[in-house]
Amino acid sequence: MPDQADFVVIANRLPLDVTVDDSGEITWERSPGGLVTAMAPVMQSRDGAWVGWSGTPDVDLTPFKADGMTLVPVTLSADEVSDYYEGFSNATLWPLYHDVIVAPEFHRQWWNAYDRVNRKFAEAAATVASEGATVWVHDYQLQLVPALLRKLRPDLTIGWFNHIPFPPVEIFSQLPWRERVLDGLLGADVLGFQRSWDSENFLRSVKRLTGATVRGRTITVGDKTKRVRRRLKVGVYPISIDAAAFAELAASDAVATRAQEIRTELGDPDVLLLGVDRLDYTKGIRHRLKIFGELLRDGLVAAPQVCLMQVASPSRERVEQYKTLRDEVEVTVGRINGDYSALGRVPVHYLHQTFPVEEMAAMYRAADVMLVTSLRDGMNLVAKEFVAAQVDLNGVLILSEFTGAADDLPQALVMNPHDIEGAKRTVLRALDMPREDRRRRMRSLRRRVMAHDVTAWADRFLSDLAEAATS
Ligand code: F6P
């Protein structure tokens, strides 16, 4: 049995992904996604335990220490990965919670696996949490954990934070197991969301679909007659990054030199546009390519003087909609490059790869304009990384209004990615923006990102959780 911890984080993935090669040798690399980017520094400063899956099926590992954290691996079988992770989490909940951009699929077998795996996570956390510990559950993959864990360990204080949007009740109601999901969440003491819209959507679902009482942002659950009433708080906690550390990295000589090299390797374009995403249909990569392709077609920008570097890191590659998206994106990139390349010079530099953080920082510094065109996005930490990396204040951020970041970063050029004409005008505005205007906007964006960093986010959530425990 692992040592017990006073602070426990539970997330679908551990911050490190394991791969086992044919000879059985194990290698670790950082897991993808914003959750890990945000939570790793929070954990390192708190000496807690992190309960999560190793990223590979059927790998049995004992708890171990890495990067200043105790990691507690939960083993998932290949069937569980397919039904709980790829199925229910990423082909049912993910599209349902992101405006049904693609159709969610509802399968009872997937739901049963979700229920079973949530129990596994709750049991692992119940073992590792010390008496009276604080447990912080993360994201849509683990919505049943709060109630399951409370049943196993009533002594714990339990928080849950949703990194992705929470849908309007009219959409959430499609879920055949909607009451079970809400009951699972109502096991927490504090429930956190990225934007106030998300929290309001959630509260409306609780009012409409459960017997709980909602007053403002307080929910009361339980049976009045049996005197087992419990109060929980719903709050809005926009997540962020370790902004100072990222800015310091971006300001380093090594990153500055690499940023110059990147521009040279790209053929010294006059303007470098940048997109950085997991290859996911919520990110609006096709919309971005359409916007850029039309600007080229209409002669409003000329290649190769203006080029786009698109990093699309591999994600959920066995899920059907992700395979389709990859094909569509790659066909579109091929068409644009076919139509507008010169020998040895392409307008779209497409990288279906994952890069170390130093290389990402150099790409942000090398870019003139960052394009975030998500159709729906809980926060979008890439936007905040780009801002933190603009140590010389030169870059322009274009941000979809459908990101949580749009609430936090109003000095960006905020636009609607569905409005292709409007989006094209926004890109042209970014290209023509006078230096002083660019710097003024970026200075104020940086002030916000530096002030509201990930430590402030975690402190606020955890202090509300501590207060809930004593009230
Ligand atoms: O925040 C959304 C999220 O699903 C996280 O839970 C996750 O860490 C990240 O995106 C990457 O997704 P996945 O773990 O499915 O690769």
Q: Describe it for me?
A:
- The structure is a single chain.
- The protein is α/β, with parallel strands linked by helices and 471 residues long.
- Helices cover 45% and strands 21% of the residues.
- It has helices at 34-44, 78-97, 108-128, 145-152, 169-172, 178-185, 196-209, 243-251, 253-265, 285-297, 320-340, 357-366, 381-389, 405-408, 420-432, 435-451, 454-470; strands at 5-13, 16-20, 26-30, 49-53, 64-66, 69-74, 129-138, 157-161, 190-193, 213-215, 218-221, 230-236, 271-278, 306-313, 348-351, 369-372, 396-400, 413-415.
- The strands form three sheets. Strands 5-6-4-1-7-8-9-12-11-10 form a ten-stranded mixed beta sheet, sandwiched between helices. The protein has a six-stranded parallel beta sheet with strand order 15-14-13-16-17-18, sandwiched between helices.
- Helix 8 crosses helix 13 (381-389), helix 9 crosses helix 12 (357-366) and helix 10 (285-297) packs across helix 15 (420-432).
- The model has no long low-confidence stretch (mean pLDDT 95).
- The site of 6-O-phosphono-beta-D-fructofuranose has 12 residues, from strand 1 and helix 1.
- 6-O-phosphono-beta-D-fructofuranose binds at residues 12-13, 32-36, 139, 163-164, 315-316.
